[in-house]
Every structure is written in C-alpha cells, then in structure tokens.
Design goal:
It contains eleven helices and three strands. About 3% of the residues have low confidence. It has two domains: 76 residues; 173 residues, no CATH class. The longest helix is centred in the N-terminal third of the chain and has 32 residues. α8 packs across α9 and α8 packs across α10. Strands 1-3-2 form a three-stranded mixed β-sheet. The protein starts with 9 loop residues before the first helix and ends with a helix. The chain is mainly alpha-helical. The radius of gyration is 20 Å and the shape is globular.
C-alpha cells in the first residue's frame, strides 16, 4: 500500500528521503558497533557466552531490516532495469580522465584558499582533541567566505550528462573540504567543523588521488552524493559525535578501519 501517488507529493517525498537518510545513518552506527564486536569476538564466543535474550533481539532486528530492504532491492532492480538502459557509462580511460579532473579541481581550490586560512582557535582544539590527532588539528586551515559562495564546478555538467542528478548545489553547502582546508559558507559551528575534519582525515589517510578515485567511482556506482561511502562515513561519525560529545573516539582509527576493510 502506497501513501504517495504516482507523481509523488513534493513535500512528502522530501520528508521520506530525510527519514531514509536518518535511517541510513542509524544503520551505519549499528554496523560500526557490530564491526567492533566482530573484530573482538568470534562467532563461537558469541554463541557460547552471549545472553540469549539479547542475541535473539539483535538477530530479530537484523533479520527484519534485511527482509524490508531486500524487498526494496528487488523492486529497485526491476525499476532501474527499465530506467538505466539509456544511462551513459564511462569506459576506464574516460573514468581515469574524470578522476584526474576532479583531483585537479580539489588541488587548485586547496592552493587558492589555504593562504587565506586560519588555524583552529584554542576552544575548538580543546573540543576536538579527543577525536583528532594533534597533527591533524595543527595542519588544517579554516576559511570563512562571509557572505560569498562557491560556484558549482564545470565538471558538474559532465556528471549530470552521465545521469547523476543528486549532486549537491555547492552554493548552498555549509562547508566544503579541499584536502586540509575547510571552506565555510555558513556559521562555523562545532558539528559542521567535525564533519569537515573527518574529510580532512580521509584525505590524509587515503591521499588525494585515491580519495578522488573512490569518490568518483562511488558516485557513479550509487548515483547519489549522499550515499557515497566517504560521505556516508563522515555523516556517521558526525552523528556519533553529536549524540555523545563526551565519549571520545579516534576518527583516524575509524577511517583506517574502513580503508583496510575496503568499505570506501
């Protein structure tokens, strides 16, 4: 039974996608908690020593989620099978060219903005030190555009020609990270600063070229900026920080874990 008509009420569709994004973030948090459990304990340990009531509830929740999203995946397969037949795709040479263009854009923007950047202030450093290394906090620079905005890059035209529609309007983004430079177009609040710093750590761990390759391949695969694993992980860690800022964790360790597990 559907609550939306064929065209879809615009407000209801926006609300649905916001709810879906929140659900995705909550599932990523659960996935990270499960990863920590899996890395420390074997399945045999769980079977032998876990409380049966907790184990049954965990299994029941996971199974219910699987059944629901699997039904959506089956529906999506048929739907996308009809829609994607006319979607252009890139061969490997064109893909590498696109990755190079994005990397050049990020590098150019970093070089443009870094001379005007300023370091974190003492209060920001104190708040963020439980989550980021001292070297990462010392390296980053902050730029506030103060009423100005970033234009969308020319490469957006090529991306939209490939059927990628869910690219963010850079003009309206709160902040954009260019390697170790965080450019803010809105007020610099702690949660947005944390999100940008996660991306700075991703750049540092992966390197510009690898980060860019994962980002471009991810956006071509998911056809949505917000579901690219690099972006989803930043939202996940931001959400975890916002939920309990008094509980420290290492962003770099989390990024390296996802990197080693091939989850980017």
């Amino acid at each position: 039974m559907s609550s939306l008509d064929e065209a879809g009420d615009s407000v209801a569709v926006l609300q649905m996608n916001a709810a879906l994004r929140n659900a995705q973030l909550e599932m990523l948090i659960a996935q990270c908690a499960t990863d920590r459990l899996r890395l420390r304990y074997s399945a045999e340990d769980i079977v032998r020593h876990a409380r049966r009531d907790i184990l049954r509830k965990a299994w029941s929740s996971a199974n219910a989620l699987y059944e629901y999203y699997d039904s959506i995946a089956r529906e999506l397969a048929g739907h996308d099978g009809m829609e994607e037949s006319g979607t252009p795709s890139l061969n490997e040479a064109k893909l590498e060219e696109a990755i190079t263009r994005v990397a050049d854009f990020l590098r150019t923007q970093r070089e443009l903005f870094r001379p005007n950047g300023f370091p974190l202030d003492p209060g920001q450093r104190q708040t963020l030190e439980p989550f980021f290394s001292a070297s990462a906090l010392a390296q980053v620079r902050i730029v506030s555009l103060e009423g100005h905005s970033l234009p969308n890059p020319p490469l957006y035209i090529a991306a939209r020609a490939l059927g990628i529609r869910d690219l963010p309007d850079m003009t309206h983004m709160a902040s954009v990270t260019f390697e170790d430079v965080l450019v803010f177009q809105e007020a610099i609040v702690t949660r947005r600063l944390f999100h940008g710093l996660v991306h700075a750590v991703q750049f540092a761990v992966l390197g510009l070229e690898r980060y860019t390759g994962l980002f471009v391949r991810g956006i071509l695969r998911t056809r949505s900026y917000f579901t690219v694993p690099l972006e989803a992980h930043a939202f996940l860690l931001e959400s975890e920080f916002a939920r309990n800022p008094a509980q420290p964790f290492s962003v770099e360790e989390r990024v390296r874990l996802w990197t080693n597990q091939g989850r980017y």
